[in-house]
Amino acid sequence: MEASVSIRLNPFKGSDGPDGAAVPWNPHGRILSERPNFTLDPLFHAGCYYVQDSSAMYVGYLFRKLVPGMDGGCGAASPQKGSRPLRVLDLCAAPGGKTTDIATSLREIMGDSFELTANEVIKNRASVLADNVAVWGDPAVTVTSVDPAVIGRRMCGYYDVIVADVPCSGEGMFRKDPRAEKEWSPKLVELCAARQKRILADAWPALKEGGILIYSTCTYEDAENDANLEWAAEELGGEIIPPENEFESRGVRLTRSGNLLKAGEVPGEGQWAGALRKTASAPVSKACRFEDLNPFVSRMQVFDEKTPRVELDLQQALKYLHRDSLYLPDAPLGMLAVCYRSHPLGFVKNLGPRCNNLYPKGRRILMDV
Ligand SMILES: C[S@@+](CC[C@H](N)C(=O)[O-])C[C@H]1O[C@@H](n2cnc3c(N)ncnc32)[C@H](O)[C@@H]1O
Q1: Does the pTM exceed 0.90?
Q2: Which of 44, 138, 158, 241 has its CA 20 to 30 A from that of 329?
């Protein structure tokens, strides 16, 4: 099986985007027959879809399966009825594939009743995450950039669910990233396994008693996968949620404590995912304040009803995304939201002879258009 290209459509933006074969474990996933030039598709920049490997979408599947209120969720992590929104932490979130997937599931099932913290410790990666989250457009997602230990210390017992998609030795990426293969060694596996334990132990106090940890990697190494989740259950206090295999016929394997997707056996790349329920007590600290994580100011552009909208054709939309100035003689003067296929891309200020382009500088496309 050759490496495939896949996307996940955004149902809150009309599921407008390239079509393809269904991803068995994600209702919005599509496997494309060829790789389009995403940079030159305004729908990509409008957040209508996210380019994500189909195997990586398996983590979102597990999330929907286990989290209360979602398909068959086991309910253990749910807050008291009517009390407060479900609190979810995506601990290692950049560039945002799992975050945007989880945000969609939460909004589909919970409406406004959730808060999702997307954290990425490496600052420049957190900035990419913040942009991707903003473009996806869910207001309940907040981006932070702190060490897992800070979350563990400051957010005692706060979260109902933690997703930890940890850095790993990356065997599942060899086909896509030849560098990962060059860098791989048994020593690297050892280092990664130790770092993953540290990340889990550091963030652990932030998970409430009864809360769910979803743990995933893109490697095939037992030491980084089953063995580490089992270590967490044993040492930190949890019980493994027994894995099932609804997708055996689609190439998904069952391992001791999770599921393994191997490149060549499934359409996408490698992924392992498993889950546990926390049994250890986690007293909620009174001093626990979300603001203490210094969340990023949201970069989401809000397109209200008052700002007139102007439809652009493909060439105009690409010029806009390139930050060229536009000439829109038939449009009203002043602030305008410019759209492609009715999806807002950003703002311009129409001065008459030209429009000032207010597209965020950091998101400008660099290719010739
Ligand atoms: C597998 S990637 C996450 C991919 C992401 N979940 C997605 O779906 O787009 C692992 C992330 O962990 C971050 N990371 C690296 N070292 C870390 C550490 N010590 N603690 C927490 N996160 C770390 C990396 O910067 C990287 O963004």
Answers
A1: yes
A2: 44
